[in-house]
């Protein structure tokens, strides 16, 4: 009989599924007489007011009988209609509430007839009905809700659904502005007041105090239910999260951190404002311990306080209108979770200084700022079921705070882990970050996380062909040091180092870089700002000296019974984890390779190069060798020692031989009135024990007769000194000081022997003699490439000029520019360079290229020499194992060739192709190589 | 076929890795064996002896090799390629390797499953022997069988009585394993 015309059928079904249809529709019969659902505002107003008066008078008549049970249905009905008319909420839609949401609401309350005291009659009717409700007697109508409060609950629900729901829905859907939720909450709060005001003011006092709370809670719960039913929580939670995030960013101080990092240096002037309250890590660190304790608890800034008040007030409202509770708590928890990450990121990213107090700072912040907000918020949006919440009981226990602190530390650890690569690049300026990480890596899961993510970063950023070996080694050294600090037992390092070491082993030049680093001048390192800037790891040589001193101090062995600091291996150590002096950089690098032999061999080669240089002393090499002997043992480095001894011995031998043979005349400077009286050049020799020296690439050629004569005399002298020995001259090695007197200039420089020999060949002839490369090659018995290289060298020095291709002439007089042009045209084989300087540059480049080519050729020859050995391996392999594909051959070679197989697949393929064309191999099905019998 | 090959390759790499890392006592022992074998291989490569050849198998741990002996001239085995397997114990060279003929061979001192009766592979083994010396001994054994202690009595008999018939048996039994 109630007309629900405004509600369409579909909606009704929805309601019906949530609220029992009875509660909506089974209205007291009287209500229908008012028919307010369909009455237009104006008419209802008049209608309602008049009937109020009327029924009120009727109620008066009843009042004497109110003590009695409402047996007389008539009287009870009248009282009922008077009371419901008084309490019913006018249907004015959503608009008035929306408009007056900003006011204190008294006007609208008045306007809606929510504050005016009931007339006497109505009051009595209310009292009558309340008393009736108290008696809780079933009314004659039996099933109908005779309780006035239940009726009012229904009334609230009805009114809300009819008037407010649509409006709120619209609001939620259409508006996008940030304070949407506030608006909604304001509206709801107003609505709540409208609904509850008459109850609180007029009805409750009629009840016994014990019941007041119960009734009110019941009504409120009804209101909350309908509110949360009407508003889709998924959307509410979204905007609630935004709202919370916005405020808590301010309250937790994260916004200031962002500002700080954005305007880092520029706003330095503003910093002298005495900001007592700050969550900034930078500022915190500079304070004394005492000040630190107060920094976050006192002197809160105004905007923070305001934000806090705003948020708390807002949440209060939220809670009041039924949008609080555990659902809001969940949203809040989500927001706080994000906030913690944000804070950690904003506060500590890139702050790697040592000593670090980041963890203390974070704990402090969580305890005093984060937890404080959590306590305040949770006190408001508590779960309604805990309605009897005592004010003293906190929702947040101390254990919770500790848990949060742990979470914060974990977040910090995650941040540091993600930064770890950069941290290590910056090492050692960034050791603070590693100290932070130490607080995080306290349990195996965290340690595993650190290693795994770091290895992933390494693979991505370091272990790729784009990184030079020096860089990788440099970083590896930093990693060793950093991880030693992080985990002194070296288990983490052990895990991290594996992929790096594996990768380094595959690099061809690893040994070379390490050895050259060891032999580098440490003094040079002091001068250079960046030790790693060059292509040598100068740091290694310093490290070598340093590590040696350390190893003298501490002799740590496994069986040191007096070691009071002993701890067992961590549980997550790998099964084959070997305790090592992991901080020992040199040791880690040397142990990269299975055997010391590769290392020693490389050391020999490099040492050989250096010892053959013309230098005053070789102290550096000697000290390095001594230090390395400590590590490798004397026997491994015997050859190197012999090499050094050779050099020092040969100095002595040299002087005595020269004295014996009368070679050391008073310094005979070549004041050559050439070619008439060339004085005898001085010859010094280094005598090497060939057996102990590495293979030296040598170019064979004929030295000038004078030199050969000197060599002969020198040999004689040497053989008389050391009777059982014989000298073999290595003509390709050594330096010659050349003085050239040309028509208009003279030239002095130190050049290599073959370069000197070539220019000497020009000297012996008449002026402006031209020589071709083939002539020179046969005359000097020198490889044509080498001759060409030497000639181009002299061209670059502007001593020779190339008149035709491969034909050279001494440039007795430097040409003027015109002549240059003319000469260029005359020598048609040569392209005319634009200017002399360009000419020189070109020539120099050409000379370099030629020298490189010559070097390459000799290197290739040496490589072919080696290839012959590999060929034996390949023959052996194919003989015994049958035909094999290239891949497998390469793999086997890598395994069985001592020191590894230095060639790539392509190089080997080329070599094998050569063998195929020589009919030593054939390719059978499946690309397998097979020996031809 | 391809899969198995890939497998062996992988395991070879692992073994390589393991030998490089060289971290436990067990491996240390293997290590010294590996080293010795590597040295022997190097020697074989640098100074190859005519008619014999040996190379590690592709499994990568160097403990099993395949060797090839070309039958010496003026013996019934002339021109035949005979394959053998070497299996080295972990304490090599203090124990002898196990050497077997893979190629079916008709010989007084070799039985039909390829087992060899040669004193230096049994009680006369000494650490100074190596792959090369074993192969050289076997090579000479082909030309001069030790008929005093035959594993193949018929062959021993035939060797003394009828060289032609012996050679026929040799060729009948021989089967090239080259392209399996």
TrEMBL record, chain A:
Alphabetical list of SUPFAM superfamilies matching this protein: Cullin homology domain, Winged helix' DNA-binding domain
Name assigned to this protein: Anaphase-promoting complex subunit 2
Domain of life from the UniProt record: Eukaryota
UniProt source species: Penicillium cinerascens
UniProt region (Disordered), positions on chain: 37-76, 653-675, 819-843
A GO molecular-function descriptor: ubiquitin protein ligase binding
Keyword Cell cycle found: yes
GO CC annotations, alphabetized: anaphase-promoting complex
From TrEMBL, chain B:
Keywords of the record: ATP-binding, Nucleotide-binding, Transferase, Ubl conjugation pathway
Entry EC number(s): 2.3.2.23
SMART domains found in the cross-reference section: UBCc
Residue positions of the active site: 117
EC primary class: transferase
Sequence ranges assigned to domain UBC core in this UniProt record: 32-179
InterPro entries: Ub_conjugating_enzyme, UBC, UBQ-conjugating_AS, UBQ-conjugating_enzyme/RWD
Matches recorded under PROSITE patterns: UBC_1, UBC_2
Pfam family, one: UQ_con
Record's keyword annotation contains Isomerase: no
Gene Ontology molecular function terms on file: ATP binding; ubiquitin conjugating enzyme activity
Coiled-coil ranges (or none): none
Family: Belongs to the ubiquitin-conjugating enzyme family.
Name this polypeptide is given: Ubiquitin-conjugating enzyme E2 2
Lineage: Eukaryota, Fungi, Dikarya, Ascomycota, Pezizomycotina
């Amino acid at each position: 009989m109630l007309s629900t015309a405004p509600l369409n059928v579909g909606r009704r079904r929805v309601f019906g599924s949530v609220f029992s249809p009875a509660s909506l529709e089974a209205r007291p019969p009287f209500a229908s007489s008012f028919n307010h659902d369909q009455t237009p505002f104006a008419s209802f107003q008049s209608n309602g007011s008049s009937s109020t008066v009327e029924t009120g008078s009727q109620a008066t008549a009843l009042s004497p009988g109110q003590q009695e049970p409402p047996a007389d249905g008539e009287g009870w009905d009248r009282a009922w209609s008077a009371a419901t008319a008084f309490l019913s909420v006018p249907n004015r839609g959503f608009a008035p509430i929306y408009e007056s949401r900003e006011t204190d609401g008294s006007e609208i309350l008045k306007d809606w007839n929510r504050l005016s005291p009931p007339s006497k009659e109505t009051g009595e009717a209310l009292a009558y009905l309340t008393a009736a409700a108290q008696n809780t007697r079933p009314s004659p109508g039996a099933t109908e809700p005779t309780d006035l409060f239940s009726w009012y609950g229904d009334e609230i629900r009805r009114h809300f659904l009819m008037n407010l729901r649509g409006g709120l829905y619209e609001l939620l859907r259409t508006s996008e502005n940030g304070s949407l939720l506030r608006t909604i909450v304001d509206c709801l709060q107003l609505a709540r007041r409208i609904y509850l005001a008459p109850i609180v003011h007029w009805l409750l006092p009629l009840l016994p105090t014990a019941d007041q709370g119960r009734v009110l809670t019941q009504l409120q719960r009804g209101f909350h239910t309908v509110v949360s039913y009407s508003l889709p929580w998924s959307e509410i939670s979204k905007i609630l999260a935004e709202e919370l995030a916005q405020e808590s960013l301010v309250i937790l101080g994260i916004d200031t951190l962002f500002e700080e990092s954005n305007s880092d240096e520029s706003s330095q002037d503003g910093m002298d404002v005495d900001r007592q309250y700050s969550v900034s890590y930078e500022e915190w660190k500079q304070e004394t311990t005492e000040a630190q304790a107060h920094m976050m608890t006192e002197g809160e800034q105004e905007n923070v306080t305001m934000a806090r008040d705003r948020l708390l007030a807002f949440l209060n409202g939220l809670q009041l209108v039924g949008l609080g509770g555990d659902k809001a708590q969940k949203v809040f928890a989500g927001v706080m979770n994000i906030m913690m990450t944000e804070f950690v990121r904003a506060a500590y990213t890139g702050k790697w200084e040592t000593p670090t107090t980041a963890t203390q700072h974070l704990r402090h912040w969580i305890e005093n700022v984060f937890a404080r907000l959590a306590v305040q918020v949770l006190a408001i949006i508590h779960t309604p079921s805990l309605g009897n919440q005592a004010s003293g009981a906190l929702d947040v226990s101390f254990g919770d705070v500790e848990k949060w602190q742990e979470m914060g530390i974990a977040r910090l650890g995650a941040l540091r882990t993600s930064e770890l690569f950069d941290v290590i690049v910056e090492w050692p300026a960034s050791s603070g970050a590693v100290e932070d990480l130490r607080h995080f890596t306290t349990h195996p899961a965290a340690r595993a996380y650190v290693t795994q993510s770091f290895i992933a970063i390494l693979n991505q950023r370091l272990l790729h062909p784009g990184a030079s070996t020096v860089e990788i080694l440099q970083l590896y050294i930093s990693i060793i040091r950093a991880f030693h600090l992080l985990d002194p037992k070296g288990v983490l390092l052990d895990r991290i180092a594996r992929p790096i070491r594996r990768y380094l082993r595959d690099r061809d030049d690893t040994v070379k870089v390490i050895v050259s680093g060891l032999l580098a001048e440490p003094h040079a390192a002091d001068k250079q700002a960046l030790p790693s800037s060059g292509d040598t790891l100068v740091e290694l040589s310093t490290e070598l000296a340093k590590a040696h001193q350390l190893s003298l101090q501490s002799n740590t062995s496994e069986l040191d019974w007096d070691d009071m600091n002993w701890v067992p291996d961590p549980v997550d150590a790998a099964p084959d984890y070997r305790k090592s002096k992991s901080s020992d950089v040199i040791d880690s690098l040397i142990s990269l390779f299975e055997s010391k032999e590769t290392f020693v061999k490389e050391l020999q080669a490099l040492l050989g190069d250096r010892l053959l240089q013309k230098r005053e002393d070789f102290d550096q090499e000697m000290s390095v060798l001594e230090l390395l002997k400590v590590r490798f043992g004397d026997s491994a480095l015997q050859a190197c020692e012999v090499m050094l001894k050779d050099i020092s011995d040969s100095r002595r031998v040299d002087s005595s031989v020269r004295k014996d043979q009368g070679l050391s005349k008073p310094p005979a400077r070549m004041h050559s009135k050439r070619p008439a009286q060339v004085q005898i050049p001085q010859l010094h020799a280094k005598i090497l024990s060939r057996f102990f020296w590495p293979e030296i690439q040598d170019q064979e050629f004929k030295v000038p007769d004078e030199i050969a004569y000197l060599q002969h005399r020198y040999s004689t002298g040497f053989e008389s000194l050391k009777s059982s020995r014989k000298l073999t001259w290595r003509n390709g090695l050594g330096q010659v000081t050349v003085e050239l007197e040309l028509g208009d200039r003279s030239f002095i420089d130190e050049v290599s022997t073959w370069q000197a020999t070539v220019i000497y060949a020009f000297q012996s002839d008449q002026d402006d003699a031209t020589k071709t490369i083939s002539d020179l090659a046969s005359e000097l018995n020198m490889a044509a490439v080498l001759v060409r290289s030497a000639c181009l060298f002299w061209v670059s020095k502007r001593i020779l000029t190339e008149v035709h291709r491969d034909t050279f002439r001494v440039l007795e007089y430097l040409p003027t520019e015109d002549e240059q042009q003319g000469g260029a045209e005359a020598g048609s084989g040569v392209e005319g360079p634009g200017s002399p300087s360009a000419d020189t540059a070109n020539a120099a480049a050409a000379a370099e290229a030629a020298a490189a080519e010559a070097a390459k050729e000799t290197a290739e020859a040496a490589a072919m020499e080696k290839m012959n050995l590999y060929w034996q391996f390949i023959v052996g392999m194919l003989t015994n194992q049958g035909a094999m594909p290239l891949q497998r051959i390469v793999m086997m070679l890598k395994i069985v060739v001592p020191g590894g197989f230095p060639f790539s697949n392509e190089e080997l393929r080329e070599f094998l192709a050569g063998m195929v064309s020589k009919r030593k191999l054939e390719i059978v099905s499946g690309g397998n190589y097979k020996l031809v019998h | 076929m391809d899969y198995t090959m890939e497998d062996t390759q992988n395991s070879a790499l692992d073994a390589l890795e393991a030998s490089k890392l060289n971290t436990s006592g067990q491996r240390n022992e293997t290590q010294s064996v590996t080293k010795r074998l590597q040295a022997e291989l190097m020697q074989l490569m640098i100074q190859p002896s005519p008619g014999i050849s040996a190379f590690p198998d592709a499994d990568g741990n160097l403990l099993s090799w395949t060797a090839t002996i070309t039958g010496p001239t003026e013996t019934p085995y002339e021109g035949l390629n005979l394959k053998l397997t070497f299996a080295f114990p972990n304490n090599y060279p203090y124990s002898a390797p196990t050497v077997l003929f893979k190629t079916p061979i008709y010989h007084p001192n070799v039985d039909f499953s390829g087992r060899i009766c040669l004193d230096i592979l049994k009680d006369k083994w000494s650490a100074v022997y190596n792959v090369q010396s074993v192969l050289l001994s076997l090579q000479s054994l082909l030309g001069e069988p030790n008929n005093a202690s035959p594993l193949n009595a018929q062959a021993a008999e035939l060797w003394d009585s009828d060289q032609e018939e012996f050679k026929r048996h040799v060729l009948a039994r021989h089967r090239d394993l080259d392209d399996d």
